[in-house]
UniProtKB/TrEMBL annotation:
SMART domains according to UniProt: PGAM
GO cellular component, one term: cytoplasm
Protein name: Broad specificity phosphatase PhoE
Species in which this protein is naturally found: Thermomonospora umbrina
Pfam families in UniProt: His_Phos_1
Gene3D superfamilies: Phosphoglycerate mutase-like
InterPro entries registered for this protein in UniProt: His_Pase_superF_clade-1, His_PPase_superfam, PGM_Phosphatase
GO molecular function, one term: phosphatase activity
Length: 215
């Protein structure tokens, strides 16, 4: 990096654990808030970020993301800017339990939604997710030029953008995503050019298995 180059970091933060005892794929549904552990996760991330140069904070409009952003806002005395492009991916199975057995996959009416995992046929196309997330990251990068920004979002949007940024195919197996609850995927830019992608799990000690459906 030359002496005159400008370094900006955008941290993509997945929200903390959600209170969801029924195991619903909650997607964009309202009313799904952080669990007690989820609140602790959010606090852990804020503590982890304390010594960073965070000057801008953005969040998905969903409750769980806004609650995850709250301790960061308090730590840095920043307003939370709601950014709709950070919202969870759309999904046709929203509001249902997902899987075989008693899950939604056992219903023949749902099988046509599973025919194309590359798009995917059951929800918002990966290309659309990547495009809106890229726009949100660019806006955050410009807002925090020369400093750092935090964007609170959801597992699939963050993972899709990372695969896009790393020039990997966007379709993938959900269980192979490297995007744990309250994890941070950091994008480092030099003069607007992406030069590094890093991954951290500040709240790893609070994550239990299996994690809840939805992201």
């Amino acid at each position: 990096m030359s002496a005159m180059s400008e370094k900006t970091i955008v941290h993509l933060l997945r929200h903390g654990e959600v209170h969801n005892p029924e195991g619903i794929l909650y997607g964009r549904l309202p009313g799904y808030r952080l669990s007690e552990d989820g609140v602790l996760m959010a606090q852990s991330v804020a503590k982890w970020l304390t010594d960073r140069d965070v000057t801008a904070l953005f969040s998905s409009p969903l409750e769980r993301a806004l609650e995850t952003a709250a301790p960061i806002a308090e730590t840095f005395d920043l307003p939370v800017t709601v950014e709709d492009r950070l919202i969870e991916a759309g999904n046709r199975f929203e509001g249902l339990t997902f899987g075989v057995g008693q899950g939604s996959l056992r219903r023949p009416a749902h099988w046509p939604f599973l025919v194309n995992p590359v798009r995917p046929s059951w929800g918002e196309p990966y290309t659309k997710i990547a495009s809106r997330m890229k726009g949100a990251v660019i806006a955050a990068r410009e807002a925090a030029r020369g400093h750092e920004a935090v964007c609170v979002s959801h597992q699939l949007p963050i993972w899709t953008l990372r695969r896009f940024a790393e020039r990997r195919r966007m379709w993938h197996h959900p269980r192979r995503r490297q995007c744990e609850l309250a994890s941070v995927t950091s994008l480092t830019f030099e003069d607007g050019r992406l030069v590094e992608v890093a991954y951290h799990e500040p709240a790893a000690g609070l994550v239990r298995r299996p994690t809840v459906p939805g992201a």
